[in-house]
Amino acid sequence: MGALGKLTATELRLFLREPITVVFTLALPLMILYILGGVFGNEADAGGGPDAMVVYRGFGATNWYTSAYVAVAVAGFTLISVPTHLVEYRETGVLRRFRASAVPRWMVLASQFLNSLVIASVGAAILLVVAMLTTDVEPAVDWWRFALAYALGAVALVCLGLALGTLMPTARAAQSAGLVLWFMLLLICGGGPPPEVLPEALRTLGQWLPLSPVIEMLQEPWLTGGWAWSPSLVVVAMTAVSAGIAWFLFRWE
Amino acid sequence: MLPTGPPIAARRTVSGVDAVVSVEGLSKRYGELTAVAEVSFEVGQGEIFGVLGPNGAGKTTSVECVQGLRHADAGRIRVLGLDPRTQVEQLRPLIGSQLQESALPHRLRVAEALDLFASLQPGGPPWRQVMQEWGLTPKARAAFGSLSGGQRQRLLVALAVVNAPQLVFLDEMTTGLDPAARRATWELIERLRDNGTTVVLVTHFMDEAERLCDRLAVVQGGRVVASGTPSQLVAAHSDGVTVRFSTSEPVGFLDRVPGVGSVQRRGDTVTVRGEPAIVARVGRALSEAGIEPDDMDVVRPTLEDVYLRLVGEEG
Fold first, then answer.
1. Which end of chain A is more exposed for a tag (fewer CB within 10 A), N or C?
2. Which residues from B are below 8 Å from A100, CB to CB?
């Protein structure tokens, strides 16, 4: 096994030794999905209410949330655990130890990237499987496009997490910032109340935050079988910016 | 995989020993702050070379420039015949390094750490052999976080030499260790030298430098203020020795012994101060006068006394 493979495998093993992180990462999004799915059911809104508003773009709530929550699950891990982990490595001197052994910067970042992508994807897969088995969610209209959207979205969110880890001064700051960011994104980017009921200002704000395009990109193939072009371009641009920050502003100490 | 690259051209130093590291006029600035100014030193093959100085003196910066971890603003550095600035890739496999305040993930186990770092820096013996040699096999399954301070240092030294380097840099190895663990760490460092490895040791502990270092450089305010063997430093930078004994006989003649600075008497206790050579001369003068005290003590300044003179008491 090459050095990168060994480093990544070691990281994965260390992650599995943190049982609380494992449970939270994998179980929290599932829990929220159950709550919201339970509250709103999966009946498509026909817009027959007194205000004539169509929520969830006219799709069933469980269908809407399941596809969105894949992004929420990934973001929960990549916005909180990934940056905290990277900052912790920097704070406690683990990065210094790597540096002393001439581990190149790309290898540190690549192992963190691969490790995070694997864990996030396991979380997403569990979420999907459990949702398919235990809720009345209808399967994706186009699985291939959904898989592609997932790959782009997950890479973007992992890069965003690494960028946050690069920018945050302390592990404590990274943890708080990640948590606040995740919760905010969850609430106003399509993971919380249907965007249609949000006040205009929040809705606009939500559209400019990085989780929205990922959610839209995932929902389009799931709900309609189509492809959300402009959100996916935003996601690619976001990936480039985050990766640039993580690479160029990387600090060993 | 054996380290490749150009043959190692060692240079002869003034003392006739092969220079493994030579640094001339190294300077490094961080913005307005000059961290290192015109630092020069040479490290000979197979010696333990100490870089000594108070915190913030520029020790770590100097040594990190030598390792190619930082780039000097000026100066000429050669390590094993290579320029760490431009040939860092060739240099890396040949050196081992323990950076100040570095650590491992707390849940990483000893065997996993050795296995991992052996594959990150290939070229050394099988990692299990390294684990055995450094007495870590009984702790193979222990997590880094559960090790004592001394055990951690032992693992970190083992990681620094896992690629069988010719030259090892150890930065502040014993800070925060209890006395027993410090002593154990010193033995590890001596063992490295006994195996033929050249060691550059950065420290601010005098007893450590005195015990371990064959030669050392004292750094203060980014400059080398003194260098040499510990005894050379003591001889060159101290104000002499003190000889103390007791006798009831008159010893006024000692004033005339060459090199004696002062003679004090308190009761039967006589204290003579002067240059280092007075030890033999005072002994002879006493013996010729028929005075042969059986409690004669020689108090030499320690490296610590000299160091405090060099860097100032606040250091």
1. N
2. 97-99, 102, 160
pLDDT-derived band at A171, boundaries 50, 70, 90: very high
Domain B11-235 has CATH 3.40.50.300: yes
Domain ranges of chain B: 11-235, 239-299
Find the radius of gyration of the CA atoms of chain A. Answer: 19
Q: Do B102 and A93 touch (CB under 8 A)?
A: yes
Q: How far apart are CA B200 and CA B167, in angstroms?
A: 8
Contact A94 B105 (CB under 8 A): yes
pTM: 0.83
* Identity of the residue numbered B13: T
Query: pLDDT per residue over B240-284, tens digit each?
Result: 889 999 999 888 899 899 989 889 999 999 999 998 889 999 999
- State which amino acid sits at residue B26: L
**Mean pLDDT value of segment B38-67:** 90
Tracing tokens 């690259």 back to the chain, one arrives at B5
Query: Which strand ranges, in their side-by-side order, compose the sheet holding B269-274?
Result: B260-266, B269-274, B241-246, B297-299
What ipTM was predicted for this assembly? 0.86
Question: What is the third-level CATH fold of B239-299?
Answer: Alpha-Beta Plaits (3.30.70)
In 3D space, the residue among B234, B212, B235, B233 whose CA is nearest the CA of residue B224 turns out to be B233
Identify all chain B residues contacting A94, using CB atoms and an 8 Å cutoff: 102-105
